[in-house]
Each structure stands twice: as structure tokens, then as C-alpha cells.
Design brief:
The chain is mostly helical and 249 residues long. Helices cover 78% and strands 0% of the residues.
Amino acid sequence: MSIVEKLNSPVLYGICGAIIGFVALVCVVFLVRAYRVGIRLGMDKRKLHRVILSSASFSVLPSIGILLGVIALAGALGIPWPWLRLSVIGALHYETQVAQAAAEQVGMKTLSAAEMTASGFSTIALMMSLCIIWGMVLSIFFNKKYTQKLGGSSGGKTMGFADRAMTAMFIGLVSAYLGSYLGDFVSGGGMLAFRGNWMPLAVAAVSALVMGCLIRLSERKNMEWVESFSIALSMLVSMAAAVLIGLMV
């Protein structure tokens, strides 16, 4: 039996499927409990339904990209492990980068089934798990203190800690993802380097444009329902734009 056949064995499917099923069950339990608490607090049912619909669209529609990530990793790591990682806690950009880096450290030229070994998979799986676990670990010790700082100031005139933290996080994400491509041009790479890395910038511009149009519709055209799908739609349109641009160039 080859290593890929072992990584796709029924045992691994059973282990990973049980974990994913447990997490899905926890999500359903929290959904039901949150809905009941909202009704008990006198919240409008229509608003609750909009929140559920928005959350579902944000979870299901972008998962198309996640599915592509599972397919990309499945060739070298089997289906169960990438399925587990990208279903529970992992992120597409994180999993692929860490898997590739770990593969290089164990002597593999590329992340492929042809070079995969049992020890190599163990190292890759350990690194993929260990490097992302700290958010959960730190939450055990600091989450209570953190939640006490959440919320805006009285009157809602100034941003609270949560608003500042989320704003800073998104600015950091944008800087990290786009900064490297702009950095090639600014640091001396010139137009040649810039031309080779313009795809992510073009996709980001399309996504921002679509989001701006959807926000305008929701705020100025009395189409509040659009807001529930704005993030998911902007992501899908930008993904389609990446495919079209790739075919054209």
C-alpha cells in the first residue's frame, strides 16, 4: 500500500470525519441557543433571520475557494487531513504555505505524492497543527480579560477596543498580502517585477470596487438586504475575475 493510499484510508476518514461532525454539532447547538436567547431578549425575528442568512452565505459561498484548496493539497496529503484542517481551524493561505515550508525542511523539493513519506507527512501535519494552535491556547488564559474590553464607548461616538482591534487586524492583513507585491516595485524590482505580481493587486481592486458598489446600493438605494451578501458576493466576483484575468494573460 502506497503512502497516498494510507493517507486516504477508511481509518483516517473515520477519525477526521468524527472530529468535523463534532464541530458541526457544536455549531448547531450554539446557533439554536443563540437564537432562543435573542427571542428571549425581544430581538426582532426578521433581523435574526437576516443574521443567520448572512452568516450562512458568508460561510457557504466562499467555501468554494476552500474546496479548491482541499483538492490542491489532497494529491500529496490525501483527502481526510486537508479536509479536516480547512474545515475546522485552518486557512487556505496558511495551510498551503506551512505545508510547503515543512516539506522543504524534510528534504522534499515539492509538496507531491511522489516524494511523500510517512515521516514527512508526520512532520508536515505536526507543523500545520502546532503553528496555528496558539489562538486557542491563549484564549483559555486571556479570553475573559479580553472580552471585558470589548464594546464601544458611551454614545457610540468613538471606537471601542473591539472596533480598533478589528480595524487594525484588517489593515494588517491588507498590508501583509499586498505589501509584498508593491514592495517588489518600490524596493528596486522595477516594472518587470511589478508585471509579474500584478494579478493579486488587480483582484484586490475588483473586490474593493464590488464591495463599494454593494455598500452604495445598501445605503443609498434602500436595498438593505444587499448588505447581507456583500462580503460573499465581493469574494466570488473577485475569484471569477482572477480566473478571467488568468485566461486572458
